[in-house]
Amino acid sequence: MESKDYLKDITEIKDLMNKSSRFISLSGLSGILAGIYALVGAYFAHGIIAKIKVIKNPLKQFFVSFDSVETLLLIAISVILISIITAFYLTRKKAKKQNEKIWNKTSKRLILNFLIPLLTGGIFSVILIAKGYFDLIASTLLIFYGLSCVNASKYTLGDIRYLGITNIILGLLSTPFVGYGLYFWAVGFGIMHIVYGTWMYFKYDLKK
Questions:
Q1: Could you report the per-residue pLDDT of 66-77, keeping only the tens digit for each?
Q2: Structural domain of residue 156, as residue ranges?
Q3: Do 119 and 147 meet the contact criterion of CB atoms below 8 Å apart?
């Protein structure tokens, strides 16, 4: 009987330590919606790229594709901003339901460790765009986003690490396949977010 009580106490202590060191209010639903936003963005981006490929004149194609970069960047930024707003709203709602603070030392560490690789990848992508290496943008974003998830997983739900590793692998696989980066991007940011978001929703959100 006493051994069972000891095990129960150890489990409770472990849960308390886990809660104090990890931000566990992330919403699985926000991951699902982020994946949907990414697929919608990829659809519009694919339409723009398809129009560029129709142009036969190489010189005209170059100028049209260069001008279209702004539109593609606008789509990417819009997807990111809407995803962030959705994640903040749903995470705040979940944290409030669990009587937890959304802004504490753990969440600050989470955001910092997530942003360092992400901002590095963003700056590197801007340099690639300036140099005209458009074919490497999708793989670069996938790899650095994956590194962000792995780096931030120490301060939140451990499942995020696997999402990160999956995106890193997809980013590396997409590098040799020039012209197919958008499809890998759609799989990594779209389908994988929906898959992992659904997994996290049923594993964590429904228990609360």
A1: 556 677 778 888
A2: 28-98+112-207
A3: no
Q: What is the pTM of this model?
A: 0.79
Is residue 21 in a domain?
no
Three-state SS at 68: helix
CA angle 100, 104, 108 (to 5 degrees): 130
Note whether residue 104 is domain-resident. Answer: no
CA dihedral sign of residues 36, 117, 172, 139: positive
pLDDT in tens, 155-181: 887 888 999 999 999 999 999 887 788
What is the C-alpha to C-alpha distance for residues 40 and 47, in angstroms, rounded to an integer?
11
Place of tokens 């004149």: 57
Asked whether residue 23 is domain-assigned, the answer is: no
Alpha carbon distance 49, 53 (integer Å): 6
pLDDT tens digits, 79-99: 888 988 998 888 888 878 777
Contact 34, 195 (CB under 8 A): no
**Could you give the number of structural domains in the chain?**
1
